[in-house]
Amino acid sequence: MSQQTAGIHHITAFVKNAQDNVDFYAGILGLRLVKKTINFDAPEVYHLYFGNEVGSPGTAITFFPWETARHGRIGGGQVGYTTFLVPVGSLDFWEKRLDKFQVEYRRVERFQEIYLQFADKDGLQLEIVEREGGPASQWTFGGIPADKAIKGFGGAILYSVAPKHTMEVLEKLMGLTRVGEENGLVRFQAPGDLGNIIDVNAEPMPRGAGGAGTVHHIAWRAKDDQDHRLWQSRVAQSGFHPTDIIDRQYFHAIYFREPGEILFEIATDPPGFERDEPFESLGEKLMLPEWYEPHRAEIEQGLPPIAVRVLAEDKE
């Protein structure tokens, strides 16, 4: 394979309440809010990025909090579960933490691994698994020590309306390797050490409906702009219709919908979230692209105030 993605770059989802979103992903899960910006296509809505200490590729889960959004329905054409990766030996810690915050979860086993499956306040399906791979997070918050902190993505479970075609795209276009099959799931692996394990539901799933509690798209990693342009050409040559390259400030992006109706993005690793804020103050200020700066006062007035805060359960 001359070109293959290292794995997941980021995953983006819809939620309703912005402060609830911050409280769950920063307050409970201990991720760092690394960027507070807006949906460039709908500037009245935040775009919030959470990840490790710098939101490295393979760690960033991002959200469009829209208070008036309808509730979505998870199904075919979406990411079914987003998988977070934690250090080996920390699953008991996470069980106790979820218990402390009264987050219901269940233990499931697949491919000889134990997962904790749960949902956020909007019903977005999440899971935690422990593995050796991937660099440890250097971010600690709210009573989560670094040796227990989420490292980034372990991967995802994809729900497809045409799984055979989705799996063909993963293998032949994206360069993942098929490594196993078990209980109706087919497992693929990318060469990276984060966001590298993708399970696909082998049976077609009824179509989902977008809205709060659902994933909007899954983004795959491109090494740099040169690699990205090659991806755009390869996607087109494979019979799909990639968008033009879009400047998202912190990465460049192309999008296309694969035959199982999941929206795929391919995003560049650079430049990253420190391009417009120093490490020490990532995520503290509302960052706007230059074409929205003249409208800052109006935009800020329309957005609800949010704060990263240690929750009451961690103060006891």
Q: What this model shows, in words?
A:
The protein starts with 7 loop residues before the first strand and ends in a 14-residue tail after the last helix. It has one domain: 2,3-Dihydroxybiphenyl 1,2-Dioxygenase, domain 1 (Roll), CATH 3.10.180. The radius of gyration is 18 Å and the shape is globular. It is α+β, with helices and mostly antiparallel strands and 316 residues long. The chain contains five helices and 16 strands. A hairpin with a 2-residue loop joins β6 (105-110) and β7. Helix content is 16%, strand content 34%. The chain has helices at residues 18-28, 91-100, 163-173, 225-237, 296-302, and strands at 8-15, 32-39, 42-51, 60-65, 78-86, 105-110, 113-119, 125-130, 152-159, 177-182, 185-189, 197-201, 214-222, 246-247, 252-257, 263-268. The protein has an eight-stranded mixed β-sheet with strand order 2-3-4-1-13-16-15-14. The protein has an eight-stranded mixed β-sheet with strand order 6-7-8-5-9-12-11-10, with helices on one face.
Which features would summarize this protein structure in a list?
single chain; 316 residues; alpha+beta; 2,3-Dihydroxybiphenyl 1,2-Dioxygenase, domain 1; eight-stranded mixed sheet; 16 strands; globular
Give a quick precis of the structure.
This protein is α+β, with helices and mostly antiparallel strands. The protein contains five helices and 16 strands.
